[in-house]
Design a protein that fits this description.
Layout: E1 7-8, E2 19-20, E3 28-33, E4 37-41, E5 46-49, H1 54-64, H2 68-85, H3 94-104, H4 109-116, H5 120-144, H6 151-199, H7 201-204, H8 214-234, H9 246-273, H10 297-309, H11 313-321, H12 344-369
Parallel strand pairs: 1-2
Antiparallel strand pairs: 3-4, 4-5
């Protein structure tokens, strides 16, 4: 701010290029209605100049206060675009202010940015910020021009701001997808270049890898390309963070490419070592040497591509072969006792079995020694008392005689 330059303290003082009461350069004026209100934009944010009358200004603040949370979210989403594109809008000299006018024009501002060596993305971000600030201003005008307590106007303004926020999120997500694909291409290109150098003659002067390792680099390159193809196929239905959270997306695609590259090399090693076998893949075509069918670099590359594309292929194969894990006990898995006899559990089981036999034997002996008692035998003896049994009559003499 130049020394002695006047600032706009009333609504009628709001002009493009002037300084507002906070000392920021006014870049655009969206609504000018003196002495009621004015809406303008600086390099920092969108600002409302309320009425010159203190009582009316207080009512206007109360009217737009419900919109403050949504406005804050919108400002947070476009703040980077606004600052990047309007860095020159705070110029203090007239020549720099004229340049800021060029920057504000999306058509004519392009050559200024290129001439100054600035990034074209800054101009695009500035253009986006201008468009969304214009829409936010429209929502504020809807509330400021209505009467106090007009719920319909407030609801309309909230709907407009919600649409602005959703559009910004959609655009941020689209930018994030573009960056995601760009990073993926760079990582795959770097991985293929690295493996080519490792298998080439230049690295052999520093460290000569054995010829049996050379196909591994080919499989790693194929795995990285397979991971890229898998990520590209699933990108449309994949939920990505917006470009403001670009680190999360960068970590995600980096891990996917690295996992695909490692999976390609490991899958090739598993096939070569014989730990796993796939009917559709002939190991002879993956092994350098004089045999039939002959070795093929293309088959090695496609093997790595398959492992990188199917992310769960190698972990599933390792799980199915039980490499490094004990075989689970089942009906086909024999179980045996430790050498030298059973432990405490076997002894207890054996003791329980013998004890059961003794109890059965003792019960049988007691049952055999127990005397047969009649109804008048009393209650003594070892046999438990039971219900009285009727006397059994002697069988009749078939001859009918008495003796």
């Amino acid at each position: 701010m130049a020394d002695g330059e006047p600032t706009a303290k009333k609504v009628e003082d709001i002009r493009r290029g002037a300084l507002d009461s906070a000392g920021y350069r006014i870049v655009s004026v969206y609504s000018y209605n003196p002495p009621v209100y004015a809406i303008y934009r600086t390099s920092e944010r969108l600002i409302v100049q309320f009425s010159d009358d203190a009582a009316e200004a207080q009512k206007q603040r109360q009217r737009i206060s419900p919109l403050a949370p949504m406005r804050g979210q919108v400002n947070a989403l476009i703040d980077g675009w606004r600052k990047a594109g309007l860095a020159k809008a705070e110029a203090e000299t007239k020549a720099e202010r004229d340049e800021a006018k060029f920057l504000e024009d999306p058509v004519n501002g392009g050559w200024v940015l290129r001439w100054r060596g600035a990034a074209q993305s800054d101009a695009n971000g500035f253009k986006r910020a201008c468009e969304y600030d214009r829409r936010v201003a429209d929502a504020l005008i809807t509330v400021l021009d209505c009467d106090d307590g007009d719920a319909k106007a407030l609801e309309t303004a909230q709907t407009l701001l919600a649409q602005v926020k959703n559009d910004i999120l959609a655009e941020r997500t689209a930018i994030a997808r573009i960056n995601y694909v760009r990073w993926a291409l760079m990582l795959v290109g770097g991985m293929i270049l690295t493996t080519t150098l490792l298998a080439g003659p230049v690295v052999r002067f520093v460290h000569a890898f054995p010829p049996s390792i050379w196909p591994v680099w080919t499989a790693i390159a194929g795995g990285s390309l397979g991971a890229f193809f898998s990520a590209a196929v699933a990108l449309k239905g994949r939920t990505l963070a917006i470009d403001l959270q670009w680190r999360e997306n960068l970590v995600d695609i980096t891990l996917r490419i690295l996992i695909g590259a490692v999976a390609g090399g490991v899958f090739y090693a598993l096939l070569r070592s014989g730990f796993v076998s796939v009917k559709l893949i002939d190991v002879n075509t993956l092994t350098p040497g004089d045999h039939r069918p002959p070795y093929s670099d293309f088959n090695v590359f496609m093997t790595g591509f398959l492992a990188g594309f199917i992310e769960r292929l190698v972990p599933q194969l390792l799980n199915d072969t039980n490499i490094g894990t004990p075989e689970p006990a089942g009906k086909d898995t024999p179980t045996s006792s430790p050498p030298g006899g059973g432990g405490k559990g076997d002894a207890e089981a054996k003791g329980g079995k013998d004890e059961g036999k003794s109890d059965d034997k003792g019960a049988g002996q007691k049952g055999g020694a127990a005397p047969t008692r009649g109804p008048g035998s009393g209650s003594g003896g070892a046999a438990p008392a039971g219900p009285a049994q009727p006397p059994v009559a002697p069988p009749a003499d078939p001859t009918g005689g008495t003796g």
